[in-house]
Amino acid sequence: MNFKTRLTFSSALLLSGLVLTNFSLKNNRTVYAAIVTDQKQTVKINYSGGGGVAVWNNYQAPQHVTGKYLANNTNWKSFKVATLDNQKKWYNLGGQQWIDGQYVSTNSQANNAPASDNSQYQVKETKGTAHITYSGGGGVAVWNNYDNSRKITGKYLANNTNWHYFKIATGDNKTWYNLGGNQWVDGQYITENQEYILPYTYYSQLTPTFAPSACEAASLKIAMSVKGIGNNLSVKDVIDKMPRASTPDKGFNGDPYKFAGGKFITIYPEPLAAYARSLGANAFNISGASEQALINEIKAGNPIIVACNLHMQDSSSYHVSTIVGYRPGAFLIADPYRYANELGKVFWVDMNKFMRIYNYRDKKAVVIR
Fold this sequence. Notes:
Blueprint (H helix, E strand, L loop, with lengths): L33 E12 L7 E4 L8 E6 L4 E10 L4 E4 L5 E3 L3 E5 L13 E11 L7 E4 L8 E6 L4 E10 L2 E5 L5 E3 L3 E4 L2 E2 L17 H12 L8 H7 L27 H10 L4 E3 L5 H9 L4 E6 L8 E10 L2 E5 L11 E5 H10 L4 E4 L1
Antiparallel strand pairs: 1-4, 1-7, 1-8, 2-3, 4-5, 5-6, 8-11, 8-14, 9-10, 11-12, 12-13, 15-18, 16-21, 17-18, 17-21, 18-19, 19-20
C-alpha cells in the first residue's frame, strides 16, 4: 500500500442494565456454528484404541480434556447432541461433559421424554441484537430457562432497548432468545437486528513481522482463518510465497518489508485470488460486486478482501483490509495495519462511507468461500 500517515484511536463499549456478555472480536481458533438439541438417549462407546474415550468440557474450542475416560463397550446416558456446521457431532453426558461422536453408537430414548420438556426444543448458537418491543407496563421478563421448568429471574427489559443474544431455542411453537448465561427472553417481544460476525483470527502486518507494505498478504491470512485454511502458515510465510511481478495485474510489484515511498505497490484481485487458491483457499475475484452481493457473501460466512483506504479514512493512502462481519447499515473491518494489541484494529464502518471508499477504489474484491 502507499503509506502516508498512521492514525491511532480507541473505542469502548458501554452497556447498561443487565450484565450480559459482549461479542468477542478476538478469535484464536475457528469456531463453527452449532445446533444443540436436547435429546435423551443411551450411547455406547465404540473405541478400539488404548485407555478409553476422552471426556471434554465443551464440544468445540476453547475446550480441554476433563481427565475422565470412558471404556469401550460401556453405556452412558446422553442428554444433548451438538451438531457443528462441519457435520461433526458431540454428545453431552450431563453438565460440562462431552464426547466425540465418532466413538459413539446411539440407542435413542427420545420417545420416552415428556412431550412438554426441553427435549422438544432445538437450540442454535448464533449471535445478533434483540430489540425489545413491548407495549405493557414494567418490562419484558427475563427467565432462567426456555422450557416448562423456567422461572422469572426478577430482571425486566424496558421497551425499545437493544441486547446482544447468543442462542435461539425453538419448540412448542415458541422462540426464546438467550442473553448470556441463564437469561432467556420470550421471542414474541423481540425484533431481530442480527449481526453476522465471522469466526476470524486477527493478524497484523506490523508484528511480529514488520511488513508495512504487506496489507494484501496479511488481509489474506485473516480471510483464510475464517475457513481454517493455512493455519500452518505465518503472516511472513504468506508474504514470502506471494507471487512477484513488475505490474500488480501479474503479482506484487514492490518490497513488502519497506514503506512504499510514494510508489503505488500492490497485487490486484485476479493474481491475489489465484495465489489464495494455491494455498488451498476457494478464492474468487468478485471485483465490481454490488453492496447487496457483498452483504450476501458475509451472510453466507464468506470473508472478503477489499481495496480501501488506510483505516477506512476518507482521505488516506491505498490500503487493503478484510470484511469479517455485517449488521444492517455497517460492515465489520479487520485492518491489518495495527499492532496485535492495539485498539481499533477491528471496527464497524458505516455502509455509506464504506461504499464511497469501495467505489473510489474501483470495487476491487476477493472472496474466500
